[in-house]
Amino acid sequence: xxxxxxxxxxxxxxxxxxxxxxxxxxxxxxxxxxxxxxxxxxxxxxxxxxxxxxxxxxxxxxxxxxxxxxxxxxxxxxxxxxxxxxxxxxxxxxxxxxxxxxxxxxxxxxxxxxxxxxxxxxxxxxxxxxxxxxxxxxxxxxxxxxxxxxxxxxxxxxxxxxxxxxxxxxxxxxxxxx
Length: 178
Description:
Blueprint: E1 12-14, E2 20-22, E3 31-36, H1 43-61, E4 64-69, H2 74-83, E5 90-92, H3 97-102, E6 107-109, E7 123-125, E8 128-132, E9 138-143, H4 153-166
Parallel strand pairs: 3-4, 4-5
Antiparallel strand pairs: 1-2, 3-8, 6-7, 8-9
């Protein structure tokens, strides 16, 4: 399990359009919002990523970069980016399922074609949303077993404003006996 204020796993993936994302060298002033999504087959992911695309400038204004990552290959990731009209949100692809598990993501098996007629991969990760500090420690994390009921990006932007103003630390860091 990932722990707040502790170093996160390494994360390096290729980017749609070229280049590479490396969490260790992302270089944002206040950190990185990482949105792990299920893949092109998921219509809920498309809606969710559309919202992140809209909110990316607000995160950037606060010194936070954004990226959406899935285990899809380059073609499917590029198609998702195109489908949502991404111009600001970076898309990473080829996330290994072993790496997804390191991040605490749940893995699902294919149920065939989805409601939008796209076949699910044999195995894929379920959603997760993380904010990681520039020192690569976990500040915020949310992991799901289903594609439904995800954190709202507008609330995360508001929480970020509060955290910046109050110098609010990451919470949930206690790992001792209870």
